């Protein structure tokens, strides 16, 4: 390394270091410290040792919320990334209207989650909701869409719907980068459409799929607005995810110490799952 | 070695400037007052309030008001105010609740007690009656919030629906349950209630069971038996089909919508809903009936003055702001303004002024408060936010028979006790 390089490297890294330091690492360290306190965020600030962590381990709702978050993660990987791949493959194989579909599928990503949440609230509403009005129009009985059994699915649908387009665009871009000669060569060998997808396209975009899966996993941990707006985690905590429970405890309940403890738990889960996913998905990437 | 540090210094300076300096460099010589109130969104007093701000800015051309008001329905507003104060970013003027919720803000020393200011401005101070002052006093006996209007809660009914099914208004428990059964049978929602945002239901069922003594017992001597009795009664009414089919997930705003559209016959709510009603002549308000075995007097109410203008200490002591935050508060709480607010939101004015030209239901409400046997503050103004939240979030569990009321209350009590050091 040239002697002056170190300075230049430092110089270029500095803005990023400062910004993440101030807005990410400082608050995070502060949260860890807060998690050892009983705190209402203002007046009361009492050191309680690991009491909050004991409470976290015993909290029934944390268990439900963690399981729900994991379920959400599963949906995200299977449906967000899975559907994203399927849609990308379909759109890639059509001749006209690629841009049209690209915009249409990507559009929900650009809408605010709160607006989508409100829209789905209006779909699910029992007395005046769209779904029930349709049912009545076609001569069926009204249905309670949000019950303890269905609530998680009911909030998962908009979560998936919103982000499919995001992964779709990533995958579509990856596919379009594959050189045409690969397909032409395979064509000469007499490859079929499905074989082409399985033996050429998928292996070549594996790196991007992996990134998408990691993004989907970490994204699922951050699901908040849609659940908050549509169900507030209800009925009876059945659709509670870690994000909504943390918000509820920290802000609605003014229990900042315990809220910080839940936040630390979210971070631990996030790290754990990124490491696991990285391990599982370790497969030779093909460079071309 | 190349000299890289001057450019490094420049970047640091730019960043520091970007992070700290923006707000000051952007002003145009005007004194900025940041105001956060609940007169935003769908609040009925929004128009009157916004007009008042405009008039104030006309009278004081060197003032620029940054209005960050939002509706107080749900808990977003509370969160915003608490977070602003917790992060040391308190507004110059805040319109917020009094009672338990404000206690942390008061104890943090961020707001000014009004005693000295009242002493200097007798006319302003005397406009507020002693009764009102008593109600807004903080734990330390001082006044930190100047109220405009008070509120009352009660059972609001759509009279035409009662007439259609030949029912009497639900003035006692028997008539109430009969109405619930009849409406439920005929496909009308008896009570537009959200069991997710069940603030008003919790208060009224407990008040009905225990009277003011039970309702205001907090957790002082353990769990008052009327609390469990009241919450179990919510389950009974739920089992009778008293609430919307999706009561477990709808929000209060949606419940209000059902009542407004006359899809529901009754709603337990507060005086603030009157402003948004379209057919005000058809609505009547009565006290929530006393349940069988309940200890309440039929005239016991949840009502009072539980909100007011807080003055930021930082702003009050800032010479550059010239005490204008206080001037704004004085302006907004003047007799003339209070009257305008009361006309808009149907509340009971905090100062001695006559509100005229309002629909009958408003007068009924004011009369109900005047004739009340007792006025209690809502439970969430009396116990800690987290403990009340535990009860509220427990209601869906109770009505579905997954937990007993006693279990939910014990969990809430435990949280309330944790607040105090062992």
Characterization of the model:
- The complex is a heterodimer of chains A (288) and B (422).
- Chain A is mainly alpha-helical.
- Chain A has two domains: 1-30; 58-280, MetI-like (MetI-like fold).
- In chain A, 73% of the residues lie in helices and 2% in strands.
- Chain A has helices at 5-34, 51-58, 60-93, 98-110, 113-124, 130-137, 151-176, 180-188, 193-221, 225-230, 242-252, 256-280, and strands spanning 37-39, 45-47.
- Chain B contains 19 helices and twelve strands.
- The longest helix of chain B is centred in the middle third of the chain and has 17 residues, at 199-215.
- Chain B is globular and about 70 Å long.
- Chain B starts with a helix and ends with a helix.
Give descriptors for this structure.
heterodimer, A: 288 residues, mainly alpha, MetI-like fold, 2 domains, two-stranded antiparallel sheet, 12 helices, 73% helix, flat, B: 422 residues, alpha/beta, D-Maltodextrin-Binding Protein, domain 2, seven-stranded mixed sheet, five-stranded mixed sheet, 12 strands, 14% strand, globular, ABC_transporter_permease (chain A)
Shape of chain A: flat
Uncertain regions of chain A: pLDDT < 50 for 5+ in a row? none
| Mean residue pLDDT of chain B | 89
Instruction: Identify the CATH class of the largest domain in chain A.
Output: Mainly Alpha
Helix-strand makeup class of chain B = alpha/beta
In the predicted model, the low-confidence regions of chain B spanning at least 5 consecutive residues are 21-26
Tell me the domain tally of chain B.
2
- Mind summarizing the main beta sheet of chain B? 7 strands, mixed
What is the rounded distance between the termini of chain B? 61 Å
Would you tell me the structural class of the helices and strands of chain A? Answer: mainly alpha
Number of domains of chain A: 2
Q: Give the CATH level 1 class of the largest domain in chain B.
A: Alpha Beta
CATH H-level superfamily title of the largest domain in chain B: Periplasmic binding protein-like II
- Describe the oligomeric state of these chains in a short phrase: heterodimer
Helix share bin of chain A: over 70%
Order of helices and strands of chain A: HEEHHHHHHHHHHH
Q: Greatest contact pair? A: A-B, 44 and 51 residues
Alpha carbon gyration radius of chain B: 24 Å
Helix content of chain B: 40-55%
What's the count of strands of chain B? 12
Number of helices, counting only DSSP H or I runs of 4 residues or more of chain B: 19
Main location (chain A): membrane
Subcellular location (chain A): Cell membrane
Keywords (chain A): Cell membrane, Membrane, Transmembrane, Transmembrane helix, Transport
Protein name (chain A): Carbohydrate ABC transporter membrane protein 1 (CUT1 family)
